[in-house]
Each structure stands twice: as structure tokens, then as C-alpha cells.
Request: fold
Amino acid sequence: MTAERNDVTIAAIHGNSPRIHSSAFIAPGCRIIGNVEIGPDVSIWYNCVIRADVNRIVIGARTNIQDGSVVHCDSPKPKRPEGFPTIIGEDVLIGHMAMVHGCTLEDRAFVGLGSIVMDGCRIASDGMLAAGAMLTPGKIIESRQLWGGRPAKYMRDLTDDALGDMQEGVKGYVINGKLHHAALYGEAEA
Reply:
């Protein structure tokens, strides 16, 4: 049995329509609204909300946003006329039920399941926010750093093995997205 494609909401708002690469996997239950750009081989898993109604959201190639996560942005303000768009680089892992809001996740960043990344934060390439952590506004996780806790604080540097595991996870999610696409829609993956 295959899923119907009408169980995903892709909607324009304020004249901005989502732009989704043909190779991306968008799972049933997702809501993608507004000024969103989704790159090649991205996977957006079941019941995620990607809502760019007040600013923009960019999601780079091979990134995965796992089940139940919410990605939003922050609107322009008098003291910050550009607001806080959400810019997600390539090969980023975002765990289940994460909340990512008005921040920058550079290439190969990792956001653990159930974590919160708030306005103005940046996770540098190869940086990691641990599961259940909350990165408060304006904080920066530098390359190869692991932060955890609520509020999140620096814990230690990541090993080469940990970074390798993260990249294996990215590769696995690209393959898994193609498999889910074929299983749900009964056609060859893009």
C-alpha cells in the first residue's frame, strides 16, 4: 500500500513558495510553508513543520530533519531589521523532536534529539548539541565542540571517531530517504 501525496502540506504565504529539490524526500505529515529552500538529497521526516512565514529558511544538501522536528525563523525587528533567518548547511543531522529557531547550523553540524536551538545561535561545522540540550539566544558552538545541558554549556571536544560516526549517519539518512520514498510512493526514488 502506498501513501497519497496529499498528506503533505506545501504552501505559499506572502508571495513566497517553498522550493524543494526533486531528489528531496518529504515524508507524510510534513508541513512546509513559505520562503523555504530545500536542497538535493535532503530528507524531512514524518510530521515535521518547516515554517518560513516571517523570514527565510534554507536547508542544504543531504541534511536530514528527523521526525516531529520544528524549524522556524524570527521576524525583522526595529533593532534587527534582517531578523533571524534559519540557515542550515549541508550534511547536517537534526534529531527527532528538535526545535530549531532563527539560527545558523553550518555544514556537518549536529543537533541532538529533543534539543532546542534559539535565535541568533550558531553551531559551527562539526559542532554538536547533545540530546535534550537548550542552546540559549546568541550562543556559539565552535567546530568540534560538544555542548549539553539546559542551558547548554561546553562539555568537551569531539574525537575524529565521533565526527566519522556523524557523517556515516548523514550517508545512512540519504539512503533511507530514498528507500522510504520508494516504499511510500511505489516509484523509483529521485
Remarks:
- The longest helix spans residues 160-185.
- The mean pLDDT is 94.
- The CA atoms of residues 43 and 84 lie 23 Å apart.
- The domain at 5-185 is CATH 2.160.10.10 (UDP N-Acetylglucosamine Acyltransferase; domain 1).
